[in-house]
Amino acid sequence: MNSLFSIEPASRLLLRNGRPTLIRVIDPSSDLVSRLTECNTDEALLALLAKERAGLQIPAVGVIGPKQATAEQLELARQLGQQFAELGLDVICGGRNGVMEAVCRGVYERGGRSIGLLPGDDWLEANAYVTLPVVTNMGPTRNSLIAQTAFALVAVGGSHGTLTEMAYGLHYDKPVFALHDAPFVDGVQYLDAIEPVLSGVIDTLISR
């Protein structure tokens, strides 16, 4: 009998080797439960998550970066958005321009969902690719909400706003990954390619 994945009845959380993941089943009576617990590898689970996202509660992954971004930073953010969407993960960001728009574009191109936490009170401030614009009327203080909501943060490049989001992420005990000239903050994991970022995010998601 496979024991890699199981469901904790009270919380409806998916467990991996007895440890809680960040995945919760919405309807514990659905046949999705048996399909989840029948997965005997991480790869099988990830493939199922990508197909059955609607039946699960999973926090979003945060992508942060500057409004004035380089072409390379924009392309990295777009590729991240594509990869997260293909994994079935929602993306949360500041919802405006630069890296934020690029990651939302990548999510859109792969049929995923993005959440844009906007600093003002007008949803039309969102970039053209945000799926769910959320007005906060909090100005830059909304950076704290992004860090609190995301289960992990990925910084692409950097600015003063990115620096505060990275610090907030660490303050809230979230893993923070950084690519391409992101500001140095002690405790952040600095990586040189998308693949190890994806591995780190997946490790966090499934408690690997």
UniProtKB/TrEMBL annotation:
Q: One short Pfam family name for this protein?
A: LDcluster4
Q: Which GO terms describe its cellular component?
A: cytosol
Identify the InterPro entries for this entry.
Answer: CHP00725, LDcluster4, LOG_family_nucleotidases
Q: Specify the domain of life of the species encoding this protein.
A: Bacteria
Full protein name: TIGR00725 family protein
Source species of the chain: Marinobacterium lutimaris
